[in-house]
Design goal:
Layout: H1 2-9, H2 14-28, H3 32-41, E1 50-52, E2 55-57, E3 61-63, H4 74-77, E4 84-90, E5 103-106, E6 111-114, H5 123-141, E7 148-153, H6 164-175, E8 181-185, H7 200-215, E9 223-227, H8 233-245, E10 250-253, H9 267-273, E11 277-280, H10 284-298, E12 304-307, H11 313-322, E13 326-329, H12 331-336, H13 340-347
Parallel strand pairs: 3-4, 3-13, 4-7, 7-8, 8-9, 9-10, 10-12, 12-13
Antiparallel strand pairs: 1-2, 5-6, 6-11
Helix pairs in contact: 5-6, 6-7, 10-11
Length: about 350
């Protein structure tokens, strides 16, 4: 059924299709009875709990950051069987993001290119929504166990890199009471200069500060770092060294790629689309190799969350064999539909 629905949605520009699909999902989940029906229909079945630090995820499949940037659809997404949902990327001040069009489909490749530019409502508004969810919405949604929510945080476009630590600290402090874990995003290709923060000295300053702030809290939240798939081996080694040194809770592997190698889509069409991060099936092999490299170099000491090219249970098994503890989907959700978590878990 979703294949037919996807054909209709794909007649619309990608960003509009996302808004339309979320509108209808919200409508479908508007009553307690409909939510129970959808939850039962998309239930992955036998619980497959995964423990990562202090958190126990009901299954290994989560929804990556970027899908529900502003924490507007937690009630609806909690019905789709995901073990966790990551909101954001969240910045201190609201951002409009880049000019449209900024999201593109490469259907021949089962891929997307995006240059969204951290468009979001700002951390103050999003923290208020999360507070409302924790205190009221979660009970009404009747999720058992409660949905695990991650907070993906970044810097504003206008913030110079030497001041970026302030943006990450600001977001961390305001989201800390309301999310279950944090992901530090320094790897999006759509904010000018952001990826330079993956250099060891810049990373150390940001992550050490957040670890310090975390230890000052009564409850500590796991802190993860999301890295780009385009790092050189030397840069990956620097990330590994730092992660072990400061006892980071894990790595999200990986963000989108700026590479355009091996695409089936016509080269002229890709060129016309222009800049942006590529996600989906073309990222699968590169992502798995990076996972395997990090898992091997760390001897499994750093938990890894795989994000990139996951569509099926076979893809999930490949990521787990490469060293991943948890999985995140985004482009796979667009192409496979709302039953993706159920399909992966039931066939794993």
């Amino acid at each position: 059924m979703y294949k037919l629905l996807r054909q209709l949605l794909f007649l619309l520009p990608p960003e509009e299709a996302h808004q339309v699909s979320m509108f209808f999902l919200k409508l479908a989940c508007s009553t307690a009875a409909s939510r129970r029906f959808i939850r039962k229909l998309l239930d992955p079945g036998q619980p497959q709990p995964v423990q990562l630090g202090p958190l126990v995820f009901k299954n290994q499949v989560g929804l990556a950051a970027g899908f529900d940037k502003n924490a507007l659809h937690l009630r609806e997404l909690s019905c789709l069987g995901f073990g966790h949902v990551e909101i954001g990327t969240v910045t201190p001040q609201p951002q409009r993001g880049n000019e449209r069009p900024r999201l593109f489909r490469l259907t021949k490749d089962k891929a997307l290119i995006n240059r969204m530019g951290f468009n979001n409502d700002g951390v103050v508004t999003i923290a208020r929504r999360l507070k409302e969810w924790r205190e009221h919405g979660q009970k009404k949604a009747d999720t058992d166990p409660p949905l695990i929510i991650g907070g993906n945080i970044g810097k504003n476009k206008i913030t110079p890199n030497e001041e970026a630590w302030r943006d990450y600290e600001f977001c961390f402090e305001r989201l800390h009471p309301w999310v279950d874990y944090f992901v530090v995003n320094v790897s999006s290709p759509n904010t000018p200069g952001l990826r330079a923060l993956q250099e060891k000295d810049s990373l150390q300053k940001i992550l050490t500060l957040l670890q310090q702030r975390n230890r000052e809290k009564k409850i500590q939240r796991p802190l993860f770092l999301k890295i780009a798939p385009d790092l050189t081996p030397a840069q990956v080694d620097d990330v590994i060294t730092l992660a072990l040194e400061i006892q980071l809770d894990g790595l999200v592997v990986s963000n989108t790629t700026i590479s355009r190698e091996g695409l089936l889509t016509d080269e002229n069409q890709v060129s016309r689309i222009g800049a942006g991060g590529l996600s989906g099936a073309p990222l699968k092999e590169k992502n798995s190799l990076l996972l395997h490299y990090i898992a091997e170099r760390t001897r499994g000491k750093i938990p890894l969350i795989a994000s990139g090219g996951i569509f099926t249970a076979a893809d999930a098994k490949e990521k787990q064999a490469a060293g991943a503890t948890l999985l995140q989907v985004w482009t796979g959700f667009v192409y496979e539909g709302p039953a993706i978590a159920k399909n992966i878990c039931s066939e794993s």
